[in-house]
Amino acid sequence: MARRAGASLRELPIQNAIYEGSYARRPRRALEADFDFFGGPAFLAFLIPDSLPGTLRSFCNRSTRPPGTLSISAVSEIDGNGVVMVAFCKVVSFLLLCYRNTARIRFRALVPNWGLKRMLSGEQISNLRSRFPILRQKTYLYSCSQGALSDAAEAGLRAYTESWRTSSAPWNDWMEVYEAMRAEFACFVNAEPDEIAIVTSASAGINAIANAVQFDRRANVVMGEYEFPTMGQIWLAQQTRGARIEFLEGRGNSIPLEAYERAIDERTAIVPVTQVAFLNGFRSDAARITRLAHDKGALVFLDGFQDCGTRPIDVKAMDIDFYVTGTLKYLLGPPGVAFLYVKRSFVESRMPTITSWLAQRDAFAFNTRKLDPAREARRFEGGSPPMPNIYAARSALALLTSIGMENVRDQIAQLTRAFLQGTRALGIAAKTPDTSVGPLVVLRSTDPEALVGKLTARGVVVSSRLDGVRFSFHVYNNLDDVHAALAVLEANLDLLVRG
User: Fold this and answer.
1) Number of Cβ within a 10 Å radius of residue 357
2) What is the pLDDT of residues 238-249, one digit of tens each?
3) Cα–Cα dist 343/281, whole Å
4) How are beta strands 268-274 and 299-303 bridged, if at all?
5) Cα 308 to Cα 442: distance, rounded to the nearest angstrom
6) How do strand 102-110 and strand 139-140 relate by DSSP bridges?
7) Which of the residues 152, 247, 299, 411 could staple to 270 if both were Cys, CB 3.0 to 4.6 A apart?
């Protein structure tokens, strides 16, 4: 699929090419084509997110690029069919003319949503569901606790055991996979790879930051009462170091923005915020809270565990200082892998008190007498990475991104709206706002344990927290799942709070 220098990229049969050859089985994120142009050998990687029109930015971890290659990202507007606009072509043409010798270049376009409709078709959902074995027997609405196991994650585990069985230097191979996982998640949240730490749990990531924050002039930590317990408990543990913790009380299963306005001031060090509350499905207005905090000079730590994997995420657009999530819920991976985003300015200014050999600038120097933390977010990591989990998580993330995160978001929103409409028709009281776009809906129950038992007996997998029963939707769910859950609820209204 060659083109002469100056040919418009609009001529490329982009939509068809995604399905050609080895791509015929399902859409892929990567599309490769060869071009003849006036340039030297190079490798250009272009990332084109809908949310960042008209900018040009660097995007790949230099350590992960092939030696002697060039890697950049040209970001431009895309129309509804995924066609690259003229501005993008001009950027490419300019870059190509920077070289003097005629050569062939390989162009890879990483396009999250090309080749997929905005709303997934029934056939696409059916094909996707076939990749999750549990969906053949169960109505799986449990992703808020653990995402369903896919054939992709299973294949990742097999790849790990194969590498262990056959490699003469497995740790060399595994560290390459480890760094690839870092770069891929960085792209997923629009961060740079050196701003991502791979940790074993959200708790490990939060602890690393909490122990690096100083509580001298600014000692207050302000957070809502709906944070996950580990967030509250880790910051409470900093009281011995001078921290003062203030919990904001909820009102009607939400934390009013006015509560943050009153509490955040020049004495506030950091504001932890849950993106979606595990207890009730309440979605925080993270953007406005971040602006409030930054206006007062405070840091913001966003916990995205109950949301990451359900919609596009852009940590730069949100302007947050820290972001933590893990793979075991909506990222469809196993426990044991989590990610911590750290804004570069904080990486460069703080020395962590929790460290490890792998967090050093040169981990393989093996110098017991020297503490020399890495200059990247890796300085906040623990010890040796859990490689079986990383193999599985990496494959799961590839499956998720191949669907298109806008498609994931839209499917979840459609199912959430349908479920909430059904519960309202049955007169069931929900903790989750009527306007929710998902992924989590929590219903009030007079006996949560008994209701979970009734649902489980009918093959509907859910979870409960306190007086709420949790129903979580993901892209692999469909309207049949909604109807199955509503049917069980209708038969057990005596176990639900009416309202």
Assistant:
1) 15
2) 999 999 999 999
3) 27
4) parallel
5) 18
6) unpaired
7) 299
